[in-house]
Amino acid sequence: MASSGETRRRKVEVSSIKITAFCHATEDCVRVENSMKNLLPEDVRSKLTPTSREEKGYYGNPIVILTLEVNDPLLVSSIVKYVASRLEDSEKRILRITSRLRYDPREKKFTIRFSKQSLFRNVLQLADTQDIVKFTIYLKNVKTHKDLEEFLASSYLIL
Known about the structure:
This protein has a single domain (about 15-155), classed as Ribosomal protein L5 (50s Ribosomal Protein L5, Chain: A, 2-Layer Sandwich). With about 160 residues, it is of the alpha+beta class. The protein is built from six helices and six strands. It has a six-stranded antiparallel beta sheet with strand order 2-3-1-6-5-4.
């Protein structure tokens, strides 16, 4: 129980994760799906399958939007740990420097964009181009940017 001068703060937690990628008409959607799954621990890759939705691109080209949502707290935690364990220190420094740009306080989400091509080779490389796999971490109990940074540091996503 908190003393009279203290306020009890709830720990920042991950509520869910969403992994999204576009599969263009010139791409093999199975390869894109495999790239997405390279963000998951190996023991769960075969257990999770993204949903797909067909859309039209700027010029009427077909685009398949692949989305993988994970809501199970234990699985979400293991995915965040897995991604953090595979990030290079240089990538973690970039995430720290750009954390304000990557966090949407209204939707309480932190977004990391990975190179789709690098993920296909099972390498986690940050990218801000259009050919990406978007990894979104939905958080709860974030009140300040300091809360966010403390969570990211304790999760080993930033240095």
